[in-house]
């Protein structure tokens, strides 16, 4: 039983929680007047009587029957906002082990189903095997109320909690489960340091008096814009219905002028097909904007945040109730396990924070997908459905194939995959170059050249990866001048000797790995040059032998670093000529593709970002002016680069810093390069300013590639923590990218692509093993680890056993 995009829980962590709760371990109690010296607080106050607060109270009392536990809830017992709650396998497993009584009561009221229906442009696609369980929120509260009363928890309804500072003085533990608008969190804002991020959609919680037979997503394209319905059953005769749309669509449709009754009727009319013409009902329902809550700290003294007070995750990947219940399980377990309250609260946060952060990343991807839903409306129907199902990156191609092979195969057929061919092994054409699969070995600086000349190391490094099955192998950034190097170990293409050395490598790739293309990335370090080799101190200046730096503006990359000279008009012309000459040498060296490096804060990237380009002439100021020089360089290179060979451009789609390049500007940058003849945009992010704050995570840069692909209408190469072949299949099949560039996985395994083919049972033209390596195309056998099973058991007189 999973939530709509899988569970955010860590099964391993849940298992540890289960074990601790089953042990029920706790030390002897000490005085309630010294809460920091005991893990068995005798007096606990819970602020908020939602599912998280109630379940926390029940667990605390169950683990220590002599503990005094009081729940303060300002509303009446039967007051609830919203209708149904979806719970996952992980959450239910934790509840079952921690409190079988609650689990059995919940189980008796579950509605279960397997399917997800996606209705778009009057076509319904169904994907099965998802295993959901839901029940009414009111029923959940009743079960928890009964359990708390049975255990002796004091429930104070219609009662405002005393101020948290007063509770902290009179109780050993104060659990703030008071929701997204937590007064406790606000009272200690300077300690918890919350960040509340509003998003771009309005939504409303409603209900229908019939049960959907699947989790239903329905898209309505109205005269005012796109609206969507999220619906699921929570009882045999009732369903939750959430209607969501962008703020501007909401206003254009006039919802801002309608009351609750009018809004409810209007939603029922818009989604009459999904509802079978039946009405919707509300329950103090109001249009609201989702806010993501993140706190730098979750506890202060003996006060701890739980559930929505500590964190929120968008409803489109599951339930806030799920996270709150898992918080309760972890908090109770840590209190039972740790020798002091402070250690317990620290352990609780350490255990839950990474799980919550992962869930919030998935939730962000999901909510942004729905915010930008109109971007995908023109996709083929099955690809649209697959894209929706995999939007959070929690559900993947392989996961979906295991759940519903028939649905996944239908998406692959529509995409054009030949039989038994994973999406990553379909070909892709760029200008006159046909790539046999969708895998690129991303450019990786090796810092191993001598005077810019690539040697045996580069031959082996690039040759090994070419033999490993990727369709395209990219060089590191190859510098267009000695002064344009990052380090003394950087490779170049500014001399004939360097060109000859590169020819040796391209010849090997073409002869030794037929079908593999090799590309060169040309760049200039700009203000990030004259530094040590990476393993000697990344971005650290050379101890001696420094060369002067140039940049759009005289701004050092790091505080105290070398200040570059601002390039004059004459120097701009010189640099442009250096790129042109390097491109001519690259063509002569036999490269199949050329990429212009306009990312990561190097010279051309420095022109694009407003944080690094402070010029007041024609090359600075407006986005159009900041693009001027990079486009001039592109045109100069394209002019000498053979017409049948493709050119790509790598950009940083965001600087991860306030005032830097925005995602909207990145789309315009991509459009401009495409208009000048770029065949694809290699979409990276960051490394432009030293004070950046990236939002790292699995495939964290791919949303930028996705946006550029759909809004600029240009093929893209996605990069950034794409680590598995399942990721590649998912991203390509969903239409979020055309190619995937992987760096570290190819350092770990030069044969990453061939091994991906073997692991998927694929043996076709998209991944041909070199003839000398064919014998290794299957995993080698290992020794048996299983013991022989008994074949015969004899029982009788004189027989042991």
From TrEMBL:
CDD domains: OYE_YqiM_FMN. Pfam families: FAD_binding_3, Oxidored_FMN. Residues 424-757 form the NADH:flavin oxidoreductase/NADH oxidase N-terminal domain. Residues 1-41, 765-801 are annotated as: Disordered. InterPro entries: Aldolase_TIM, FAD-bd, FAD/NAD-bd_sf, OxRdtase_FMN_N, YqjM-like. Residues 44-360 form the FAD-binding domain. PANTHER family: BLR3436 PROTEIN (PTHR43303:SF3), NADPH DEHYDROGENASE C23G7.10C-RELATED (PTHR43303). This is Bifunctional salicylyl-CoA 5-hydroxylase/oxidoreductase.
